[in-house]
Fold each of these.
Amino acid sequence: MFQFRPADFHFSRSRVNPLCVSLLCMAQSGRFGLSLRILTVLASEPDTMHTSAAIAEKLTESAVMVRRCFLLLHKKGLIEQRKGPHGGARLKLAPKQIGMGDVYLATEDDWLVLDDPTIAGLMKRVREEGVQAMNETTLAQMLKRINKKAASAKAHNGVSSNKKATASNAR
């Protein structure tokens, strides 16, 4: 009997799914995560056109990968793009109208579609239910959590700095 051993493969594991050892799985996982990060940047300044280079720099990612995600998000109608000197991308929909399932569908495509008719129906249902569950969280909710966490971290760092300054002044 064949026993799965990740050490038998020479691919790096995905950060999202450590059991994922195929290049396709890793590329898909990366696109979804990067697309979410891109959308949070776009949602933070919804009226501004953002270039792929500016977003890539902000996220410390490859501009090529950002453009690939732009293409996928644009095809699904989540962002709009404009070429030229004042071009870039911005959200086409309000952040509260974009669910995580929408982003997943835009970036992951049909990874749960199988040719085997005995389990294809089951996998289709699993995928639909998963996307529905993901859509219970919107981009607006995600951005709110990110901002809350950033504010909490900033306040915590400020308190730590003030305590250090007070302690050093007391000496």
Note: The chain has a mean pLDDT of 78.
Amino acid sequence: MASKLEPLFSSKNEHWNTPEDVLSAIYGFCGGPVGLDPCSNETSIVKSDRAFTIDDDGLSLSWDCDGLVFVNPPYGRGIGAWISKCEDSYFFDGSEVIALVPARTDPKWFQDYAPRMTAILFWAGRLRFLGGKSSAPFPSMLLYWGDRPNRFRFAFRSLGLCAEPLPVGGS
């Protein structure tokens, strides 16, 4: 007999729309709407200058824009491709990027990319995603690639633990 909670602990539910409290913090950090939401959908409330939907295939398009790129990717097995795109957009295009993802530090994508992230916020408590009847069954984190780590820490300091990764093998 399957549990009613089973979809919450699997990759079956990939879309977790960003809650208003997260967006308020994001807008406070960037001073208004974000420049690009490459993971938008019909029920998203993210205010952005530009948005890509699943039909646009945000992974294949350039994220070069004026302003912050805010990424709340589908929470499935393909999340690593989105994190790779976040990193590439920062290092190759100079984009400032924040991604909202499940706070899971054991997947390969996290181990591979975390050492080159600028900062990470481990959100205190569990988020209640837009339209959710209760809090998510997993913790969340914000991943930051950008040139304003002090601003990031200041803007999000009351929302959880901020950390700056050290390169693996670094001293």
Note: Residues 1-13 have pLDDT under 50 and may be disordered.
Amino acid sequence: MIEVEVKVKVADLGAALDRLSKLREVGRYEEEDIYWDDALGTLRKRGVVLKLRRRDGACSLIFKGRRLKCHYKAREEVEVKVDDAKGMEKILSEIGLKPSFKVFKVRREYISPHGRVFLDEVRGAGSFMELEAVGRELSEARARLRRLMEEVGVRKEDIITKSYPEMLEKR
């Protein structure tokens, strides 16, 4: 599947919650993403991401392919559930990877027929609204994201396409 996403800095949490009130909230949780790479930064240089995500005792391994040419942040994403986080960390270490970055966030998740919206409190970076839409083709995912942006009142000029690690590295 192709995932297209954008972020928007949230200056007024109350206003953001009001904009999201028409959507269905489906979860509140803490989430930690541990990004993995080798000592030379090979994955990063290739423009791909491999991260181990922990959420409420569950764990998944996520691969994000190279960014596609698109006004928004778009890439292929593959996510698999992991039953044994420590075992997966051992495997990643044994094949020459090491943790390269960690992102911790408290997240509220909302759903819409067009996609998902997350209201994130990111440690060290602040509050953000992240919108995600998926599709089999890039054009389908982009169209769904545009409808989601309209639904929650996000304007093109307000979007941020940087990842949380890219934002946190600048600090």
Note: The mean pLDDT is 94.
